[in-house]
Amino acid sequence: MLDAKLFRNEVAETAARLAETRDFQLDVAQLEQLEQRRKELQVRTESLQAERNSRSKAIGKAKAQGEDIQPLLAAVDDLGNQLEQAKVELHEVQEELHAIISGVPNLPDASVPLGKDEDDNQEISRWGEPHQFDFTPADHVDVAHKLANGMDFEKGAKLAGARFVVLQGAIAQLHRALAQFMLNLHVNEHHYTEAYVPYLVNHDTLYGTGQLPKFGEDLFHVQGATEKQVPLSLIPTAEVPLTNLWRDEIADEAQLPLQYAAHTPCFRSEAGSHGRDTRGLIRQHQFDKVELVWLVKPEQSMETLETLTQHAERVLQLLELPYRKVLLCTGDMGFGACKTYDLEVWLPSQDTYREISSCSNMWDFQARRMQARFRRKGEKKPELLHTLNGSGVAVGRALVAVLENYQQADGSLKIPTVLQPYMGGKTEIKCI
RNA sequence: GGUGAGGUGGCCGAGAGGCUGAAGGCGCUCCCCUGCUAAGGGAGUAUAGGGUUUGUAGCUCUAUCGAGGGUUCGAAUCCCUCCCUCACCGCCA
């Protein structure tokens, strides 16, 4: 959520920036009108409340002194109704305003290139050379198939439906090895606090990171057995629980920066992506991810984005997977981000780079929604934190990348050196 | 799942329809006193929003005692629903 002051004092400028960068049309006239109504109603409501309070106090005093309070009660008679009505109207206007404002995306940082979609993204760097195969590289589905049928989409479909998978044997083990390796790297070498978090979260939590109210259809929602139970949703990323650890909290400056890492499954309904990446592991309803989250002082957030991204890059470097780093343009960034780097890993079967990590600085956008704050030493007023998150990295897609980049002519798979300790020292997975 | 007890400021803990944004204590900040250490005295110490304003200063108003509704001129206090915590019992990985 953007600062409400931007909508009060600089509506026109804000609308122009949103239109330019986000192709987002802010209805300025409507907003101004609502804002004016809000002001009137709030002033009216609060002065009525003030009057009621002082009159009630007077009644209390009169009563204590044994005076007749009937006339005082009569004088206050109509006040209740007026107040009631003003409150209802104020509430309506505030709801309307809130609905509009909470649906406005974050403003991009000045360093972000203007653009419409992914074609306008800016490549920052490349790492590693795509391996030259002396045979036609198979895609990960075929590679896995030859390895003891380690990736079974039919079983996944039988158990749950389309976009689910069952991994077995060495492939399942490799999947686990990847997650373990990543989490260990971040916790042991990059000093993240390891966290185990709920995979189901409530709506307040989802609102905090920006999934609600706008993106509810991207999630799986779970209704408890009884109607009274609060509705929960499966997390689409561990960013949600990790960032919300500090919802409605005020950190001491000395506690900062806070950095968390978690390995969790992620659940996405992928509504609206019918027909995209239907083959293979690329786009599933359920996938694992190691997520990195930072909460920092505002003046540190931009340099933290670089650090965070490097941590994700390190995973790919150690796995010796070629990748490129891309700075997303304004039009391709997520709702709450002010600056995002994507890491795209080389997939030989597709002869292209595919997203495997996305690292974003959310500025104070989520923190404002969450009221996640900190207090500087010696200062009275708490300030909003800045939040950042990044995948470090997506486990399923990392598995895809390893399968495709490490495949051998005979159908067997070399195991990346850094994963070998997690695979019982094995150096390859033989085909059957 | 059952029964019982609770959820009050940074923390502990009173209050049980009006003068309570909330006693008292602890902690913290500032000042004073004390030749060290210890102790003592005084003042201050929530958050959000609105109005005023060039102002994140000041002044002022409003809201907040787990959440949401209700009763009332007036609710931390009474009623209802939900959430959470603790204890014991049952069940369970």
From TrEMBL:
PROSITE patterns named among the record's database cross-references: AA_TRNA_LIGASE_II
Coiled coil start-end: 24-51
Domain Aminoacyl-transfer RNA synthetases class-II family profile: where? 174-416
Cell inner membrane among keywords:
no
Q: Which Gene3D superfamilies does its entry note? A: Bira Bifunctional Protein, Domain 2, Serine-tRNA synthetase, tRNA binding domain
- Pathway given in the UniProt record: Aminoacyl-tRNA biosynthesis; selenocysteinyl-tRNA(Sec) biosynthesis; L-seryl-tRNA(Sec) from L-serine and tRNA(Sec): step 1/1
* Protein name as catalogued: Serine--tRNA ligase
The species this protein belongs to is: Pseudidiomarina sediminum
Name the gene behind this protein: serS
